[in-house]
Amino acid sequence: MHGHTPKHHAYVDALRGWAIFAVLIVHTSQHVPGIEARAFWIAEEGARGVQLFFVASALTLMLSWRSRDDGALPFYIRRFFRIAPMFWLAIVGYYLLRGADRGFWAPGGLTWWHISLTAAFLHGWHPATITSVVPGGWSIAVEMTFYAIFPLLIVWCSTLQKACLAFVISLALLPLMNYLGFAFYDTFESPPPTISCGTSGSFGFGTSCPSSSSALRRIILFNWCEGKEARGHAFSAAPSRSSS
């Protein structure tokens, strides 16, 4: 039996707005000459907006899944057509704009496998493809990887206790996955974020929220906005260069 159209939540829109605002701050600060060091350091923390967006993404997907109740296949179809058309258009657009020029992430220039992995949303698993085709495209790789395992998380996170356990496990995996990322790709300053699992804690956090009461959920998310949960190094894997 299918559910109904997911309810619109204003506080989720607010979370997305704050996330976008934070990311705009960090990218804008990178192009302000002579910015004071303390101001630059504060602006750099705007990168945590990406984790906040991932939290909101996991939260809304959990709520949407429960409301629609139509299974994994319709979920994958919706996610695919939400992301793929515009991302593929971006691949074509950036290639026409920049060609196969060399860059920090692809010093040898773009080849067929850079574009193929990016088009298949697997570019987050190698530093040479992570953001070389579409600037900032690493976040799409992370998001699509989460989509791939999301139905499995739904089966597991059937209670608040299990959801919290999934969150704790994602945090426990962080040191190991960061180590493996640097071990395999030690020529780059950061491992691919998909491998790093630095963002998995964000998704795990968002996944656990729908299992709590509405009031508790809002309190938890408000605390995240205040930065209490963002003090960790979850963003360690995100590209920090202006090319991203």
Given helix and strand content, the structural type is mainly alpha
Q: Approximately what portion of the residues adopt beta-strand conformation?
A: under 5%
Number of continuous helical runs: 10
Shape: globular
Number of DSSP-assigned strands: 0
* Mean pLDDT over all positions: 75
Q: Measure the end-to-end span.
A: 44 Å
Write up this protein.
The chain is an all-alpha fold. The protein is 63% helix and 0% strand. The chain has helices at residues 10-29, 37-44, 48-68, 72-98, 112-119, 138-156, 160-184, 193-196, 200-208, 214-225. Helix 3 packs across helix 9, helix 4 (72-98) runs antiparallel to helix 6 and helix 7 (160-184) packs antiparallel against helix 9. The longest helix is centred in the middle third of the chain and has 27 residues, at 72-98. It is globular. 34% of the residues are buried.
